[in-house]
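Dear Dr. H.,

I hope your travels went smoothly. While you were away I took the liberty of generating a structure for the chain from your last submission, since the lab meeting agenda had it listed for discussion. I wanted you to have the full record in hand beforehand rather than looking at slides cold. The sequence, exactly as received, is reproduced here:
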Amino acid sequence: MAHLVFDQAEQRELREAARAEFPGNAALAYVLENLASEGIDLNRCRDWDDIRAEKGMPERNGKASEVA
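The corresponding predicted structure, in token form, is as follows:
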């Protein structure tokens, strides 16, 4: 895999978008701003099904009603 990084202009745009889109949720804006500055290590990403199993959630059955 790879490490996804953003150049300075992209970082600035992502930070501004995070602040504009989530003014009432400082924690979410912080996470998005952090991703903009730190990038994303794709080697550390986990599959959704693995996370579900880890949390003891049932397997997906493909119904749209399960989508949040």
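Two observations you may find useful: The first strand starts at residue 3 and ends at 4. The beta strands are 3-4, 40-41.

With kind regards,
E. W.
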